Predict the 3D structure of the following.
Amino acid sequence: MAVPLAFFALFFAYPVVAIVGRGLTDGGQWQLGRFGAVLSDPDIVHVLWFTVWQAAASTGLTLLIALPGAYVFARFDFPGKQLLRAVVAVPFVLPTVVVGSAFLALAGRGGVLDELWGLRLDTSVWAILLAHVFFNYAVVVRTVGGLWAQLDPRQEEAARMLGAGRFAAWRRVTLPALGPAVAAAALMVFLFTFTSFGVVQILGGPTFATLEVEIYRQTAEFLDLPTAAVLTMVQFAAVLGVLAVHAWTVRRRETALRLVPASQTAHRPRGRGQWTLLWGTLAIITVLLIVPLLVLVERSFAGPDGYGAVFYTSLRSAASADSTFAVAPLDALWNSLAYGAAATAIALVVGGLAAAALTLPRLRKGPSGRTALVSRFVRGFDALLMLPLGVSAVTVGFGFLISLDTPPLDLRASWWLVPLAQALVGVPFVVRTMLPVLRAVDGRLREAAAVLGASPWRVWREVDLPMVRRALLIAAGFAFAVSLGEFGATVFIARPDQPTLPVAVARLLGRAGELNYGQAMALSTLLMVVCAGALLVLERLRPLDHSGEF
Amino acid sequence: MSTTSRITATAVAAAVGLSALAACGAPGGGADAKTVTLVSHDSFNVSKSVLSAFEKESGYKVRILKGGDAGKAVNQAILSKGNPQGDVFFGIDNTLLSRGLHEGLFSPYKAKGLADVPAGLQLDKGEHRVTPLDYGDICVNYDRGYFARHKIAPPKTFDDLLEPRYKGMLVTENSATSSPGLAFQLGTIAKYGQSGWQGYWKKLKANGAEVVDGWEQAYYDRFSGSAAGKAKGKGDKPLVVSYASSPPAEVLGKKPAPKEAPTGVAAGTCFRQIEFGGLLKGAKNEKGGKALLDFLLSKQFQEDVPLQMFVNPAREDAKVPELFTKYGTTIDKPTTLPPETITKNREQWIKQWSSLVLK
């Protein structure tokens, strides 16, 4: 508990409070009257309304499209499943600048859909919504699907044997068990879309702006810290509100679940309905997720003289080029991996400890006296861990700059700043992924094992580890992938001689010319392959069949 | 074992493994009298050989810190003033200059070689708080192929852009989110004055000018003359607000080199951006900072500037590479505005522009 608390106090709360405080004070006096002035500005009201509206719509649409996918991945076996599971997570970690243009190539003017059916989405809010589905599909599939795969289908079968209809059995048995995971996924999607920055900027054109975009403009463009501080507080309050609702739903739905290895629950689709569901899901994934990614690959090979690997080979020669701008793709790749690994390590320690602390049995028992107080505190802490996802990168970045500036905490030029900032975004993923599983572990299993004579170590190895390991791996994979693709904070603090892949891509895209553009596409493709590779490795690490351990 | 320690054990085990992988990539930082730190924006580049020549000659090791785009980097410097991140700042331009001067970011220092910089670039001549280091122009670029195919002469001036024959051809950037977009707006303000620019934009909008948020999108996705826009004929706008150095960049790496760049520049639509560097007040290595500033204005660095950052050197006597002389356009009469005027009106102009053009 102490480690995660200290981590957040130092690397999140302190910098954010420093920058917000700077905006809300004037010569030591608090200027709270600014809230009224900013919040009555019709432009700001419009931004607020659009932010809420599009986030709600995006979340609904993502759940609608991705929940069947979560089911398919959890319950069906089909060739290439692991590869596909890795592929759908790739969009989530690609820089939005790159994906935005790939997405435009699909759904924009002259895009694939335009050529086929005259369908163009780039001028409407639909482009934003679909791009949000594109980015967040994996969140639902992984968060919900991960748990779904481990739910014992026999419970539902038992209910049906007892006379419940197919839907009733699902509603009474599976749905309540999935509740926390669905809520967690929905919450994450809502948070991401509520604070959406790149997608809205690229696909929304100048007419749509979210709160996050407005905070960026006020801070980075106008240095209007008072307005930015007010907006940051508003975003804070909104995110806290969402988290409160989430905590409430989770508490209502929490039950100890019977978890079984995923390999026992999945089977080849049976019957017409299941095959239709599988093919339907595959079709949606292809159109919505794979085609935009393929467009990216296609562009990376579309050289000036027809298709070829010219941009890739020029990347290799750029390595020897005499410039601090040019960066060898392998170097950027190595930087990305090193930062990502460090960030994952930090996120796992901080997030793992936090998740464990949140499931401590003594903190969750009894509504009376001190324990109730403690448990309320724990819930507050739970919400606090999610806050970094709801605070803009520019706020955190500027906060780092003005708060971590004196020794021994002058980290502004330290190598560790990048993984620290990335871990801040990774921790919530670790906590979110670990919590449902940890909470679902039935304490009686441990007691039973102990009664049967198992040593504490053996109890841990035979009971807890098999259940936690998978969640831990998924958490690590997510934290790692998020770090690989993280851009907002990294670009702020990455040292120029050690750019990550996304930073290198953005640098290339910032320059005119065919060569730069092609190289950017080639590097993006590389990033995509690495992300998919990393996620695929994690899928492989997962033991396929460990039923013998039970 | 409690649940906590169990999870701790697993998490720590995983973390140790990953850290071992990460640690190899983590050299220690640290500033000392032998290190001099340059703070800049993302676009800063220098040849490795030029930089190491300076390092060898001066005995200083140069550390470079970049902080996002130009505006963000300047604002970072303002937020950390008094306790700066480094010793020298590179890349505050004339649209942001007086904000930085007003905040007292810089200590005066007269860099060697200033005599070879034209007077027109020396905007802080009396006090030498900042030193002009390079300049570039933001202009409308046109797609040569498009205008040749349609047998129309490309536009040359701001006024031309209002002509019906260029209707619906121009794509530009949002002033609030894009620095080329803002520079183009400032160009129109310089040209038509504080009372006339809004009228100009009303007509420009009526003539079908389109606005997108960022330069990348305008140039790569919408402009028909860029390589990416040309692919499959996806770019549909033959006019775009970009840089005077974009045409040479389009030629970069092309073999064999073409006779002329695929794009051209409308020379009468340009706004000049001048970039400055200065010694940061509170610098820990002031002596090194002065040496670094001298180096930035040295002929060696100045001749390196065009191909590294796609802008022109500030020194008159610096040789410009063939890529620039052959495919670039020399802008004789760019528009510009005094930095104080820009700082005073910047926010208000952007707001006025937004409600005029975006709504």
Remarks:
- Residues 42-75 of chain A form the longest helix (34 residues).
- The radius of gyration of chain A is 24 Å.
- The mean pLDDT of chain A is 78.
- Residues 72 and 277 of chain A are 8 Å apart (CA to CA).
